[in-house]
Design goal:
alpha/beta, eight-stranded mixed beta sheet, six-stranded parallel beta sheet, about 15% strand, single chain, 20 helices, about 45% helix
């Protein structure tokens, strides 16, 4: 009797950040024999009851996912997970309350850790099931940083350099205080004093003291960037400045800052990696792009004019420590001038190399994607789907999934900054031909995937499989 593999379900929330890495994982899984459903996270949830029983790859284990995890398990799917935000995280107590939930982590069958630090942190979680395996596999986003995969972005790099010439890249990470939808910020909007504000999505689970301190620190840092950009424009008039906001931010503040200046641009187009490879120097504050720049061996500067050891090191320390650090305008101008003169490159040194190795595995040897797929095969998913859920529970989950999808679709059409606009902001329309072109680039670069095909599954979802 022929084995029936589980369907690997790979949801994508922030397309520009996640899609390429998750497509690579999908291609490797399909090459090994898994049918894969890849696409928008929201639309994956809409279709959860129509997808054959499989393995759902979650990007977090927050309490906010409890209902969806319950529904997925009720439909007969199993759940494996990694922690997307594990590289930059608050101290353990706040991290556990913000990013983990006993009710969700108890639904997970396997966890894939970015590296040793991530695994050690997770093992400290008091509600971690004793039999839950944690695999130090690395992450597909880490694969895209490896030298052999950097040419994947060559066409985009050339296009960016043609469009912007020599430019300074500024990556922002201020969703806490500048959210696209007010409800997802650290606090809900209110005319009352901060102490009386209710938590927004990013604040739930944090202690009020930590959240208020972080909010004030982030607001001060955002203000410092707003002051800095005109100063950089004056100091380096020959360079363009490109502001790249976090996908969950409101871009209006940056468009207002750019105004009519032809040398200041605001764009969140595409994956950040070609931007890092195209620019001359990148500025950030506690942003994962600092780590990505370090891995790509391109110059990055952590701008820390409002330096606070607790928030800038204990919380956001990894990308800051992997970058050149500047705390005032004079030192910043000096470092940028040294980079432009070719006398200074990427931050380096043994301490930084050890820090990177501790946090990110699979920098050499088999890709993280390969290691993840190997684990799924060893767990038996290639030879069988998960067992059917008990019928009463399945019926409840099927009905609830459809009701939830209907209500979410209605909510997407509410006036104002609604969920549909937010979805389209994070997952713009993706055509099948674009996805096929990405697979072809992977195929040419890695000399594999010749028999991998992509087909439309439903709106915003695609099926990736190996041709028979």
């Amino acid at each position: 009797m022929k084995a029936t593999p589980a369907t690997l379900i790979i949801p994508v929330e922030n397309q520009v950040r996640e899609l390429d890495a998750k497509l690579l994982l999908a291609c490797i899984a399909a090459e090994r024999g898994f049918p894969v459903i890849l696409g928008s996270r929201a639309y994956t949830h809409f279709q959860a009851a129509a997808i054959p029983r499989g393995v759902y790859l979650a990007k977090s284990m927050r309490g906010l996912s409890r209902l969806m995890f319950d529904l997925l398990r009720g439909l007969g799917h199993e759940i494996v997970a990694w922690e997307e935000e594990a590289l930059v995280h608050p101290p353990a107590d706040n991290y556990f309350s913000l990013r983990l939930s006993a009710a969700t982590i108890g639904q997970v069958s396997h966890i894939f850790a970015w590296g040793q630090e991530n695994a050690e942190l997770l093992k400290q979680y008091p509600a971690l099931p004793s039999d839950l395996p944690i695999h130090i596999s690395g992450n597909p986003r880490g694969d895209m940083l490896r030298p052999e995969l950097r040419p994947y972005f060559a066409p985009a790099v050339a296009a960016l350099q043609k469009q912007y010439g020599e430019f300074i890249l500024i990556n922002t990470n201020f969703t806490d205080v500048n959210p696209f939808i007010p409800a997802i910020g650290m606090f809900l909007p209110s005319e009352k004093p901060l102490a009386e504000r209710r938590f927004g999505q990013l604040g739930r689970g944090l202690s009020r003291a930590f959240a208020e301190g972080l909010y004030h620190h982030k607001q001060a840092t955002l203000n410092s960037f707003k002051e800095l950009i005109p100063q950089l424009r004056a100091a380096f008039p020959e360079l363009n400045i490109v502001i790249r906001p976090h996908p969950s931010e409101n871009f209006a503040v940056y468009h207002a800052l750019a105004g009519q200046d032809a040398h200041i641009h605001v764009s969140n187009e595409g994956n950040v990696l070609p931007w890092l490879l195209a620019m001359k120097v990148m500025l950030h504050n506690g942003c994962t792009t600092g780590l990505e720049a370090y891995a790509l061996r391109v110059p990055a500067i952590a701008w820390l004019p409002t330096f606070n050891a607790f928030y800038d090191y204990d919380y956001q320390g990894l990308p800051n420590r992997l970058s050149h650090e500047c705390r005032d305008l004079d030192s910043l101008r000096h470092v940028i001038a040294e980079v432009m003169a070719g006398r200074l490159g990427a931050a380096d040194g043994d301490e930084r190399a050890q820090l990177m190795a501790y946090h990110v595995s699979a920098q050499q040897g088999p890709l993280a994607c390969e290691r993840i797929v190997d684990t799924l095969i060893k767990a038996g998913y290639l030879h069988r789907p998960p067992p059917p859920a008990p019928l009463p529970g399945y019926i409840r989950a099927w009905l609830t999934t459809h009701i939830k999808a209907m209500l979410t679709r209605l909510y997407m059409h509410r006036p104002g900054p609604n969920r549909r606009a937010y979805h389209d902001h994070r997952f713009p329309a993706l055509c099948l031909s674009d996805l096929k072109q990405r697979i072809k680039r992977f195929s040419k670069l890695l000399q594999r995937f010749e028999h991998i095909q992509a087909k439309a599954h439903s709106k915003h979802l695609f099926r990736i499989s190996k041709q028979a």
